[in-house]
Amino acid sequence: MATDIDYLGQMPLFVGVESQYWQLAQFQNAASRAKALGISSLLIKVGEAGSLWYGSIGGWQKVLSTIAAVGVKAVPYYYSDGGGVLASEIAALTTVMKAAGIVIADMEIQYNDDAHDDQVHWAQQVNAALLPVPGIFGVCTWGDPAEQNWQHVMAALAPCTNFWMPQVYSDYLASVYKTQYAGYSPVYPAFDLAGDFGPNNIVANVRAAQSPIIALWEYQELASVAATLSTALQFGGGITTMPKPTTPNQYQITAAITEWESTAALFPGSQSPSYTTGIAKAWQERYFRGQQLGGPTSGELGTIDWGGKSITRQYFRYGRAEWNNGSCRFFDGRGEIL
What we know:
Low-confidence stretches: 234-244
Order of helices and strands: HEHEEHEHEHEHEHEHEHHHEEEEE
Number of strands: 14
Strand content: 15-25%
Distance between the termini: 29 Å
Largest sheet: 8 strands, parallel, barrel
CATH class of the largest domain: Alpha Beta
Helix content: 25-40%
Shape: globular
CATH architecture of the largest domain: Alpha-Beta Barrel
Structural class: alpha/beta
Strand order of the largest sheet: 1-2-4-5-6-7-8-9
CATH superfamily of the largest domain: Glycosidases
Number of domains: 2
CATH topology of the largest domain: TIM Barrel
């Protein structure tokens, strides 16, 4: 079964409302630019207020397939106003999730619950409709939901929501979002590239997030900040070469096991994936060479590579491993690690 990171990759980038009247060539160009900077996926707005976009250029699915053909993942998101258009919005979200396997609902001020309870009822309707629909449903919303009167809305949406994407657009929001999303998981923060929402040390905030998926808002700001983010977010292509391995001592061995088990809470029964597989042994070797991939965020997954060969893949906090015929390759945001 496909996971969140299979759809999103490690670094998805939002494309905003500017894309509503784009032609397919503009989506293709955006995908090429994003790919060159190490972006794993483009999050494409496919509609709002009860309607779906891009009918004049072949429909939203044509847009996503155009992006995917460049080698970048394409993920649909939809802005929900609720209220009188809610039924149409639910129909659109359902259609998109069934067809694409994933959809993200961007829900903001219209869902702020000011004790009138209308917004909670809207959230309950969304939950009831989407819960039985196969696919992955994500919610992108405030970085400070408790201050936006979202507590009851979040509780109503929780059963159908596979992941949360808080808008961590300032230093203040970076300081509060983890606390305000306590009890909800997984959480993949979205960071603002422009700094339009107050003091915003994005480099420090991204590093502090310690998230396997970091989202970015948004495409129009990408070129102006790529250089600043190149180190912190590992933008750009290339190959990372690690030092030769040395014989580990007992303390290093203990530290490696502790690192592997650091993500145990992500798995049923808080039981980490096996530490005896070929991938685990290769991960351990990388750890002793100084490559800090972090603990596993998935078990081993059977899949295929871009050439159609069967491989086993496993994701970690800061990278992934690919196992094929007794050989293990590792990748981070810049490319393959030799």
